[in-house]
């Protein structure tokens, strides 16, 4: 559909192109301009998704399981937000450790915009099974695991300082993900990138003694499977969430015969195969029709993990007098429709068929630095249509 719109725009542009001396030149000018229109349209679409350029992704990359699970929790198959209140903020970013040492971690946060509000930051470490079943004594059932922020050297002391961020007792025999909150450290890194010297993880016995590192081990990026890599997960908000309330709390038009948010139903892949050109003439009254935006057709399937596309829907049809409640008219539209019907004043059109409820969608994608990001975009899907 988008491609169709783009080629239509290109066609109009070609027709409007100023006359040239010969056919060949005209031909090339037309092609240039249609490419121009296309790239301008893609650029504008990228802006809707808050980007300047499409991220460049080299080779096939795997998104972290945590991010895939998170996406499936907040979004349905089509990417439409299941519950707008599930996620705090509208962005979740994941970063892999760039230092790859057993007990020290460093994450490059250069892709986070300075305008993004840091809500929560978590360090995710995968605890491995103890390597050695060394002579256990009862002090070894639990270990104190502490995460420190490494601080820059101060003028008076040459030694690196460190600040305790989070500390917890972890059973020696457990395996799996351990999550530590490190929000304060990330905020200080965002304030001054030079402060980012990384994190240090210290494991101690209950008595505070040195711990055998064979007993409590965390997976590192270099030595263990990719799915167990240390990860920083950042919940942020870019302030782009719209002011309009989704799922308007009081839907008095609930009796409407219009399709009411059938978004939770089976995936609407079929929307794509529907015949868009099915024209019933201008007599069709205002209703919601499918409009599938296919990321593959736009050439974005390389960096968007999910969804492959989504049904944005569009509103189409006339708003003739008299406007029934199923047209979900505003009072203003009703009055305008009456004025139009009575021809009281010249030049007053019938009301327009427009989306009167909009839903957000979620995108799971790779950013410029090949980190996986989950982002919510508001007002992307027409939930219902009305005469306004
Ligand atoms: C962080 O990543 C950016 C972009 O990839 C790079 O330019 C910058 O040098 C990196 N910073 C550090 C400290 O590695
Ligand atoms: C460093 O020295 C300054 C004054 O010379 C003092 O105010 C500050 O508290 C010292 N900082 C530390 C960490 O000792
Ligand atoms: C919604 O509308 C009903 C009547 O249609 C009213 O009783 C109720 O107070 C309204 N609720 C809100 C939140 O506006």
UniProtKB/TrEMBL annotation:
InterPro entries: Cystine-knot_cytokine, TGF-b_C, TGF-b_propeptide, TGF-beta-rel, TGFb_CS. Residues 1-17 form the signal peptide. Keywords: Disulfide bond, Glycoprotein, Growth factor, Secreted, Signal. GO terms for biological process: tube morphogenesis. GO terms for cellular component: extracellular space. It comes from the Eukaryota. It is found in: Secreted. Residues 244-258 have a biased composition (Polar residues). GO terms for molecular function: cytokine activity; growth factor activity. CDD domains: TGF_beta_ADMP. Its main location: secreted. Residues 269-388 form the TGF-beta family profile domain. Residues 243-282 are annotated as: Disordered. The keyword Transferase does not apply. Belongs to the TGF-beta family. This is Anti-dorsalizing morphogenic protein. It comes from Cynoglossus semilaevis.
């Amino acid at each position: 559909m988008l491609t169709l719109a783009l080629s239509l725009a290109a066609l109009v542009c070609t027709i409007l192109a100023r006359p040239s001396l010969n056919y060949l030149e005209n031909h090339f000018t037309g092609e240039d301009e249609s490419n121009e229109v296309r790239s301008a349209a893609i650029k504008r679409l990228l802006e809707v998704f808050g980007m300047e350029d499409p991220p460049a992704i080299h080779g096939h990359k795997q998104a972290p399981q945590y991010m895939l699970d998170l996406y499936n929790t907040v979004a349905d198959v089509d990417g439409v937000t299941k519950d707008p209140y599930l996620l705090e903020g509208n962005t979740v970013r994941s970063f892999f450790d760039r230092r790859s040492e057993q007990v020290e971690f460093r994450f490059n946060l250069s892709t986070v915009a300075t305008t993004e509000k840091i809500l929560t930051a978590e360090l995710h470490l995968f605890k491995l099974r103890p390597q050695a079943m060394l002579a256990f004594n009862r002090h070894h059932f639990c270990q104190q695991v502490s995460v420190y922020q490494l601080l820059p050297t101060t003028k008076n002391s040459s030694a690196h300082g460190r600040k305790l961020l989070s500390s917890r007792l972890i059973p020696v025999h457990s395996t799996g993900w351990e999550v530590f909150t490190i929000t304060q450290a990330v905020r200080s890194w965002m304030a001054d990138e030079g402060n980012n010297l990384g994190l240090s993880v210290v494991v101690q016995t209950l008595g505070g003694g040195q711990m055998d590192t064979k007993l409590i081990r965390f997976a590192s990026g270099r030595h263990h499977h990719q799915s167990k890599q240390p990860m920083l997960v950042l919940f942020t908000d870019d302030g782009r969430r719209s002011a309009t309330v989704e799922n308007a709390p009081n839907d008095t038009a609930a009796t409407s015969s219009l399709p009411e948010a059938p978004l939770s139903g089976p995936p609407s892949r079929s929307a794509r195969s529907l015949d868009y050109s099915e024209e019933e003439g201008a007599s069709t009254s205002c209703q919601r029709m499918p409009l599938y935006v296919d990321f593959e057709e736009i050439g974005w399937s390389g960096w968007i993990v999910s969804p492959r596309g989504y049904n944005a829907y569009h509103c189409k049809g006339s708003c003739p007098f008299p406007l029934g409640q199923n047209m979900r008219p505003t009072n203003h539209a009703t009055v305008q429709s009456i004025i139009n019907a009575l021809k009281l004043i010249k030049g007053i059109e019938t009301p327009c068929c427009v989306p009167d409820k909009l839903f957000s969608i979620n995108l799971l994608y790779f950013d410029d630095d090949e980190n996986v990001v989950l982002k919510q975009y508001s007002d992307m899907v027409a939930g219902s249509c009305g005469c306004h």
